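Weekly modeling sync, notes
Attendees: S.R. (lead), two postdocs, one rotation student

Agenda item 3: backlog of single-chain predictions. S.R. asked that every request posted to the team notebook include the full sequence so nobody has to chase files. The rotation student volunteered to paste the first one in as an example of the format we agreed on. Action items at the bottom.

Example entry:
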Amino acid sequence: MDTDSHPRPGHEPLPQPRTDAHPEPLPEPLPLAGLTVVAVEQAVSAPFATRQLADLGARVIKVERPDGGDFARAYDTAAHGLASHFVWANRGKESLTLDLKDPRGLEVLHRLLDGADVFVQNLAQGAAARLGLDAATLCARYPRLIAVDVSGYGPRGPYAHKRAYDMLVQCEAGLVSVTGTLDEPVKAGIPAADIAAAMYAFSGVLAALVRRGITGRGGPVEVSMLDSLAEWMGHPLHHTMHGGEQPARTGLAHAVIAPYDAYATADGDRVLLSVQNDREWRRLARQVLERPDLAEDPAFATNAARTRGRGRTDAVVAGALGLLGADEAVRRLEAAGIACARLNSVAQLAGHPQLAARDRWREVDSPVGPLRALLPPIGLPGGAAPRMGAVPALGQHDEPLLRALGMTGAQIAGLRRDGVIAEGRGDAGE
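Predicted structure, as returned to the notebook:
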């Protein structure tokens, strides 16, 4: 091998271009830039789905009732006067108010749909069909349109017309039966059914966009809250169907692993740990509990023995961790290679050091000023940053959207006078 650093005759290095003549390439545009989404949506399931589309660059036009808009706007006033659900699920959208029971409002919606790529609705079962806004009807009229129906229980069957709120679907899907303690079932503390349906609607739109890119045609997408949450129930469902027994509610513990729970520390915090195999138990006993005698004790040496004697196992672990502060407990557990976590509050999540270290927080504009918001979980390294637009005021974009459709000031004033759009005057610059 020639190790001479000097080039040989005839092998001079090529001249290098000036770095200032070749600036860094611009990031790729957001993947959904240029797409228009029209949504007749309310509450959480459809709005959270369309927010994902907005974050990835789509233009999302949110159609709301003139008399108050999406009822999630009034759930609470916790976000500096705005509703926390609404702030979370509706950033980056344009708000257009329309009374869709008025033919003029419905006609405006169809003018929007004529140039739209995606339509999403989660009206009460049957309401969209009565207005001719169900996916099947719209896709027949607009062949390139992807139309999404989000429902509680699906379009057919004995539950099709039942009211479907998140808590009700959590109960119907069996989630509540496996969540909580042995004595008390509880619902999830987040709207799990709504979120499940939202994420399947989001991924359904992405799949339909790929299909349209291949075939040139849009088509319906159908998502129900029950179907979505039933899919998420996969482990207890298959355990019950094929094993014959429903997993017991165990709080923070695990039905078949011990120790696997939260334990109080000397300073009043709680630390969770999970021992996945007997090697880890031996390390826990020696390095954390400082009880090397328990490493090979037949009452503790195997997971089967520890689980049979769960009360005894938990008492030993709780006794040792109860003498330590949370910081020292976590330090020992991590040094021993034991999976662990702190039992954080929501406020502690908001100040989580990992989120801060990875620069996951941004500010979004809103009618009450800037609000903190997390970046979306989907990262696209090398591409443009997610578009985390403002939370819209009700009817904020009525005027510019209607003018873009060719309506005059007099026509818009007539719609406002007759209650077809909201009374407040939108401002495109907000």
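Discussion: group reviewed the output briefly. The chain has 17 helices and eleven strands.
Action items: rotation student to repeat for the remaining queue; S.R. to check formatting next week.
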